[in-house]
Design goal:
Protein name: SRPBCC family protein
Shape: globular
Radius of gyration: 14 Å
Distance between the termini: 33 Å
Number of domains: 1
CATH superfamily: START domain
InterPro entries: START-like_dom_sf
Length: 132
């Protein structure tokens, strides 16, 4: 299993960050430009990654003010789990961590690990920009 993580510190209370992340409609604001054909509800989203694949995800688990887990709702090119965790930080704000767990063979790892890390980093950076 390949684990890709990206963390961001936000000067917001944990419930504000969690409430934003738990609604997949909000995740479109976190996506890079190479994501298109976005369609979502609070619990499901589908989109196309340019030159790669079409993905459909759904919320598999929510732990209020702690974590949100999304998994593919249709057959994906590989098993993947998208998880956001939120926890209070020492400054009275929130630490948000985006964790992508993907079951990649060696060939897929060489091709996909870099873009997945860029995606995770882009999403945490955008979360800070969007929530300010």
């Amino acid at each position: 299993m390949t684990i890709i993580e990206s963390t961001v510190e936000l000067d917001l209370p944990i419930d504000k960050v969690y409430n934003f992340l738990e609604d997949l409609n909000n995740h479109q604001q976190l996506m890079p430009e190479n994501i298109y054909n976005w369609s979502s509800t609070a619990d499901e989203a589908s989109f196309t990654i340019q030159n790669m694949a079409k993905l459909a995800i759904k919320i598999a688990n929510r732990i209020p003010n702690s974590e949100i887990v999304a998994v593919p709702s249709e057959k994906a090119p590989f098993d993947v789990e998208l998880k956001w965790t939120v926890e209070p930080n020492a400054n009275g704000g929130t630490t948000a961590k985006h964790i992508i767990s993907a079951d990649l063979n060696m060939m897929m790892k060489m091709l996909a690990a870099g873009p997945l890390q860029k995606l995770a980093d882009h999403q945490t950076k955008r979360l800070k920009e969007v929530l300010g």
